[in-house]
Predict the 3D structure of the following.
Amino acid sequence: MAIPKKVLALHKTASGTSADVDNGGELERVDTSLIESVSVGDFVLVFRGNALRVVDAEEAAKIQSALDCVQKVMDGEFDENQIQAGFADLDNASSALPPHLARIVGKKVM
C-alpha cells in the first residue's frame, strides 16, 4: 500500500535521486528514480522505500484520511461518521466495472 509523504529534501545518488520525506514526524530516505520531476514540498506516494508518483496535497489528504480510518477500525474504534468522512470521496462516486469485465459478469469464464 502506497503512503503519501511530504518531500523535505532532495539528493543526487550514484543510482539516481532520493528524497528525505516526513514519515510521521521522522525522517525517511526514499528512492525517487521512478519519478520524472519532484520538488521539495511535493507529496509523493511511497511503497517499500520507493516514491511512485507525485500527488497534490488534496489527494494526499484524502488518502491519509482513508488510511487513518482503516487503522481506527483495525484498532476496534468503529465510528460510522468517521468512516463516512474517511471515505467521503468514494461514498458519492459512481462505480462501474471496465467494459471488458462487465461483459463477463455472470458468465462462466473457465
